[in-house]
């Protein structure tokens, strides 16, 4: 399977679901007197980043993951969004970028070297395929799940269908529960 097929569709599916979750959170918040400032400050634990940072990091992980594989021109988000509109804008801009990715730009050699460093000075050397499997996708999904969990923690009635609703396109006809 190509690096494109392993990354871009997964990023598109998860970011689309995250956008829908944010829309549901905004509507639920309006109906339940939970304001945007409460969502913007929402976090799972005192030492974890708040919802807007989780959104920014999820978008950033998709962009930087593809950049390390050869894509270019991704948007930059130096700051957290201040409200739902800003979070939705970051997701929309990331999805627009993903739509421009040429599969050829990510290469066809899954065994080529990919290296990256962290701000603390650690440097990792992997193959492209190992990088996608062991870093790019897990880091991306960590922030997707953290954002989902912050919204659930604040009371938004999200469920598995909100997280993976894109799977409905693959449902075999006649197998959906009737009740």
From TrEMBL:
* Matches recorded under InterPro entries: DinB/YfiT-like, DUF1993
| Annotated signal sequence range | none
Mind telling me which Pfam families this protein's record contains? DUF1993
Say which domain of life the source belongs to: Bacteria
Gene3D superfamilies for this protein: dinb family like domain (1.20.120.450)
Family matches, as PANTHER family: BLL2446 PROTEIN, DUF1993 DOMAIN-CONTAINING PROTEIN
Its name, as the record gives it, is DUF1993 domain-containing protein
């Amino acid at each position: 399977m190509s690096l494109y097929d392993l990354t871009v569709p997964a990023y598109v599916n998860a970011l689309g679901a995250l956008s829908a979750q944010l829309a549901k959170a905004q509507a639920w918040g309006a109906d339940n007197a939970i304001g945007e400032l409460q969502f913007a400050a929402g976090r799972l634990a005192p030492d974890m980043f708040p919802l807007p940072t989780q959104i920014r990091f999820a978008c950033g992980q998709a962009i930087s993951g593809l950049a390390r594989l050869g894509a270019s021109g991704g948007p930059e988000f130096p700051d957290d969004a201040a409200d739902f509109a800003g979070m939705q804008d970051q997701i929309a801009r990331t999805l627009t970028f993903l739509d421009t990715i040429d599969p050829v730009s990510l290469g066809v050699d899954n065994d080529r070297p990919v290296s990256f460093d962290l701000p603390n000075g650690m440097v990792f050397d992997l193959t492209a395929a190992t990088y996608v499997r062991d870093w790019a996708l897990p880091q991306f999904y960590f922030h997707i799940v953290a954002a989902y969990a912050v919204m659930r923690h604040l009371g938004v009635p999200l469920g598995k269908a909100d997280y993976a609703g894109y799977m409905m396109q693959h449902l075999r006809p006649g197998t959906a529960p009737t009740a």
